[in-house]
Amino acid sequence: MRSSSAAPPFPFLLLPSLLSARNRARRRERGDLMRGVAFGAIALLVAAVIFAASFWVTWQLGGYAEFGDYLLRLGLSWLFLTFLSFLAFSGVVTALSTFYLSDDLRLLMAAPVSRRRLFHARFARTCVHASWMVIVFTVPVLAGIGVARCAPAGFYAAAAATVVPFVVIPVAAGTALTLLLVNVFPARRARDILMLMGLLFAASLVLLLRLVQPEQLLRVESLPEVTDFFAALQSPVTPLLPSFWAGEALFAAVKGSGDMVHLAALWSTAAVLTLGVAMAYDRWYFDGFSKAQEARKARFTRLTWLDGALRLLPMTAVRRHLLVKDTKVFLRDVSQWSQLLLLVALMVVYLYNFRVLDLDRIPYMSGVLKNMYALLNLAMAGLVMATVAARFVFPAVSSEGAAFWIIRTSPLSLRDFLWSKFWTGLVPVLLLTLMLTITANELLGVDPFLEVVSAVAIVFMTVALVGLATGLGARYPRFTADNPSQVAGSYGGIAFMVAAVLFVVMIIGLVGWPSTVWLWYQSRGIDPPARTIVLLAVCFTLAAGISLVTWLLAMRSGVRALEDNR
Amino acid sequence: MIVVQDLVKRYGSFTAVDGVSLEVAPGQIHGFLGPNGAGKTTTIRMIAGLLKPTVGRIVVNGCDLAADPEGAKRALGFIPDRPFIYEKLTAREFLRFHGGLYELDGAPLEERASEMLELFELQRWQDELVESFSHGMKQRLVMCAAFLHRPQAVLVDEPMVGLDPRGARLIKEVFRRMADRGVAILMSTHTLEVAQEMCDRISIILKGRIIARGTVDELRALAGADDEHLTPVFLKLTGGSGLQEIDEIV
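ok -> structure tokens follow
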């Protein structure tokens, strides 16, 4: 038996992913069902909200005849421009992983698989991995537009024919860039490129939002200004971008006609780019892949200042060494860094929005609105903190991974170990959320009473949520996970998120209601009755009490779980 | 069957493999020995087509790896030191996929997979997910995959790691029989007893260079050692036992 068949076509190389997904679905693990239901429900809810929003906006625009059409056309173009930048970034990051860092490449590269077949399989995988999120978002948006405009069936066919080449173009460009970067930069720093890309993307996101000046949308005094705003979104280069072609093709389809020119531009560009990347791949791929096999040089190898600085902290030597280890591991893991960068970029945008929010233009309402925003900001900070805790604190115990035996066999008590994890997580999260809350409230100019209440509340919430994340992380560890994201998406991670959201809602209720009542009396210059004061004090005390109980119970439960699994 | 000529691999200013040449004839088991970091795995990964040599030529079964990589790889079976296996596939699914990579299909592939699973005593677990396998079972599964397409040459990096004595015995027997049928085997190992027992010829690599080559007897003569075991010969050739330093530290 030398060879019983010719080489199977490239989709054969995608078989392990499909079979693995099937096997995963067949052999459910504990919590899989709950996770599936929770994720499914959230996904459906999000899709329904997106569909409803898209439908509503398109429906409203329908009332403005030609101007509505103009705005819809611009909106589509702008939407696809956003997708284009996201897909190009996502293409680079995903291509780096699928073409150079995937473990299965060692198996495939040692097999007699032709370069062309491997390229096609990897490129298809890159396209799917890089674009699924955009496609999942696009479907309800376009469905909303189609339904609102009673679009013919051809619109949906055109949508599919538009989205496919539209996705391929930026992913091909991203793959080409990855190919170039891995060959130009020392390959042992391949992951550093990812960090660089993260920075660039974060910076461009902030810049983009700054340039768009969304605050202008609040100025609805006159129609011409709105027109100017949207006209400003157009630039001379826009018609040369695939996003413009996609927008035009879809706009034509929603009107019941066809725009073959822009569709042809999309397909031909996608084909030419794919062909170009395939040729570049033939020429340079193996060089880059070979370089990527070299051991990666550790970043921040010395960090002596860190050791020195932490030596000043009042803590035991054991805890200090744990902290040094956790900090260094964090600093050297680019996947942690890049996500943190994106988070920082989003926070900058978030705070920037507060800065440009011109509420004084509504004189009678500005005070009330500002205080409402302060509470909203507290809730947002709480939810941001819950996400940060789920992503960075919850996996703290699991991140010990296969090396957890070192902790288990050392004379360090598991209680000390878990508390060390808590403090390591608490300090940065507390600084982040305090900064977010105080800065946003300062920018808004909210009542000083509410500023103090928010600051105190966020401290209690942070302590509770970091404690909850640490405790549940110890209770539901996943030592076999490949990366912290997997841990955050596990059964325990979802359970933490659900508990954290409920906690934030409860605390906002317990803090928000008495604060509003207090401010109501203040604004009218009346002293609140004693009974009301007692009630307000009870609410604040209850919020503090629930936070402390959540914190301590979660930590105790975590320690006990670790000890029981000894 | 495997011909390596003047192979060099440089990482920046560091030379991991420095002018290695070797030849493994059909039916020969060639041991590749050396201390940690000597360049064994780098050399084997270059022959497997995973690393690009800085300089040098590799020919497998008459196919130049640079000019005809698919032809060379088709004749090769590779058992890496840290093999990758899709954890969410069953053993049979993995073999089916692996066979497909080597252009096997249908009934012949199924038959051959069954033979291999039986040979390596994995047939009971053929429908279990690989993630539930022990290290030794995974190692045996990788060997099933490597021999599935009846390679003419086999590269093995540390074959005995994680195997129990029964598994180790089985592997030795399989390698010996394969060699008897004309398969060329290049085997890197730290287990000197295995090398002594199985290898027809041995190359010793140190700091990227081949420092000695020959049969066990030839190496013994070269080192001037009269011990019947290979360990003192290896230590003499690669630079002392370090026992004195241990005494000082302990």
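The mean pLDDT of chain A is 82.
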